[in-house]
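For homework, think about our next protein:
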Amino acid sequence: MLLGLAACGYGSQPANGAAPAAPSAGGKKLSAGSVTIGYFANITHATALVGLQKGLFQKELGGTQLKTQAFNAGPSEIEALNAGAIDIGWIGPSPAINGYVKSHSQNLKIIAGSASGGVALVVNPDKIKSLDDLRGKKIATPQLGNTQDVALLDYLAAKGFKEDSQTGKGDVTVERIDNKTTPIAFQQGQIDGAWVPEPTASQLVAKGARTLLDEKTLWRGGQFVITNVVVSQKFLKEHPDVVEAVLRGSVNSNAWIKANPGQAEQAVNAQLQRLSGKPLPTGVLDPAFKNVQVTDDPLASTLRAEADHAVQAGLLKSPDLKGIYDLTLLNKVLKAAGRPPVSDAGL
């Protein structure tokens, strides 16, 4: 069903792990002794970063121990989910779609949204002054087949550029570069721009790049899913109480972020510092954080659109996404909080 999955990085190694959180003293253990969640050290994963830093997940889990694993890219996180190394993960839409299709709808479910926006095309202003100047230039994305790679390929196709989706060669050269090294590649002149998530986009701007296109301007209402919450179907079936507890932590984390944006920004940076050894400078952190909107709604209609973009780019063949969502527990949590349910858009 999928083209180029091997090149998408299945088998790549995760980023630094994290020490398990101590179970709440006196807290009731749920049906599992522990649960392991995966996430990225990206601003687009602010829900997970804040929830971990503020202890909001462990509070809901009580005596069930929370373990974590940070990843550099979606394909390796999906592989970990499939292998049982993690149970629940924060992840972008394209890897979630790929994982669901590759397993013939057997391995994962999307159970909540997490974030919208936070993606931009940033360029060297000396070489690219308008979208018409992209021809012949080198533009980076984080990984073949990842969410930003699909978005760039779809955009270029819509503008009439001819591209080979697998090699990245064409009217515009698409370079697949890890987010961690993209700023260096930009400084050294190896690339002319990048279609990347936060904080990489703001890091490039801090090094002299200019935002040429904010991806949210391409979407109706300015919203599109950039981060979902997924769960192993096996874990969901065996431990729905644990999954519900993690979702309460997710919903509470998003509510806290919205109510305390300044503190939330610092909590995100504290968690990033713990993972990488250094915090983001204010000039990068402030714009990056403002460009991301946390949301419990999975924005399911935009997932369908992103799958269509992958098909058009030649990275997917007619994916059947029926059943990819199970929002039962999320809507239970939202109802308990006095909030309306969210939709799976028929998926």
The two ends are 19 Å apart (CA to CA).
